[in-house]
Amino acid sequence: MKVLLLVNPFSSSVTARTRVVIRKALAGDHDVELAETSRRGHATRLAQNAAADGVDVVVCLGGDGTVNETANGLVGTDTALGVLPGGSTNVFARTIGLPNDPIEATADLLEAMEARSIRRVGLGTVNGRYYCFHVGIGYDAALVEQVEKRSGLKRWAGHPLFMYAGVTTLLKHYDTKHPHFTLRFDDGDLVTDGYFTIAANTNPYTFVGNKPFDVAPEANLDNGLTVVTVRSMRMDRLGRIIAKALKGDGSLAKDRNIHYRADVDHVVIRAIDGRPFPYQVDGDYLGEIETLELRHVPEAMDLLLPLDFTG
């Protein structure tokens, strides 16, 4: 196969040794070129150029943000996306069954490439931008903003940094007393008191260490989005919601403070009283906005999948 190894050298887990070892492993049976990103949006351009040049697989070594950019460059082409974990959380790589160590994950990708384990999968879009696993709206995005303000610590702190940011955001950086947005679904279903929404294309939402945080068990790469909205940020209610998500038994959808919709093709989210709300896409904070339009796009992109992936 003709392969582009696309590397974000600034990602938390990417080292010079990792790049060398992975490139050597891929080059054993494939024609491999290496390209490094240097700025926001660069991965999308590199992926687009690779597809135009007839590359079979773009293997992305980076965090979830780099994977998102790469996917946006490959949508609608015949070039497949291969993912190697290079960030601090690596939600998408772990969701499709890859180990969190990039060198171990390379062995799985090589097996998948030999077997041509490639599948056309669905993605979500938010205001026209494609995403792989989720969009976070409200509190979740405010948390990501706080993490990105301390981006220099991500390589060393990892999950503890996210936990610290989660607490400080709740206490200091997000209004938990007033709803921020409404959601309108195509069948007329209306939510008027949104504090925090996850529009998931896959499950889990994230990982707490090695524990999956199962917010949307019905979400997968073949059906529509699962949209989960938290309608109260009272501490006692949040504690119950978190416990149900960690349990992963589907009980979260039945909580009276949760609005849960599976297999959603389209939803519009609007700010209340014109007050912009924060949002993030695949772990990348994108600022505040007054309106979001989310859609599910079936069979959007070819994805290289581990042989034991069943999702």
How would you portray this structure in words?
The structure is a single chain. By secondary structure, this protein is α+β, with helices and mostly antiparallel strands. The chain has two domains: 2-116, Probable inorganic polyphosphate/atp-NAD kinase, domain 1 (Rossmann fold, 3-Layer(aba) Sandwich), CATH 3.40.50.10330; 131-297, Tumour Suppressor Smad4 (Sandwich). It has helices spanning 16-27, 42-52, 64-74, 91-95, 102-114, 139-148, 154-157, 159-173, 235-247, and strands at residues 2-7, 31-36, 57-62, 80-85, 118-126, 129-131, 134-138, 181-185, 190-194, 196-200, 206-208, 211-213, 225-230, 258-264, 266-271, 277-281, 284-289, 291-304. The strands form four sheets. The chain has a six-stranded antiparallel beta sheet with strand order 6-5-18-15-8-9. A six-stranded antiparallel beta sheet has the order 14-13-10-7-16-17. Strands 2-1-3-4 form a four-stranded parallel beta sheet, with helices on both faces. Strand 1 (2-7), helix 1 and strand 2 form a beta-alpha-beta unit.
Anisotropy-based shape = globular
Distance between the termini: 25 Å
Structure summary, number of beta strands:
18
**Count of individual domains:** 2
Order of helices and strands: EHEHEHEHHEEEHHHEEEEEEHEEEEE
Strand content: 25-35%
Examine the coordinates and then state which fold CATH places here, giving the name of the CATH topology of the largest domain.
Tumour Suppressor Smad4
Calculate the mean pLDDT score and round it: 91
Give the biggest beta sheet: 6 strands, antiparallel
Name of the level-1 CATH class of the largest domain: Mainly Beta
**Strand order in the sheet with the most strands:** 6-5-18-15-8-9
Structural class category: alpha+beta
CATH architecture of the largest domain: Sandwich
The percent range for helix content is 25-40%
Please report the number of helical segments: 9
- As residue ranges, the low-confidence spans are none
**Over the alpha carbons, how many angstroms does the gyration radius reach?**
19 Å
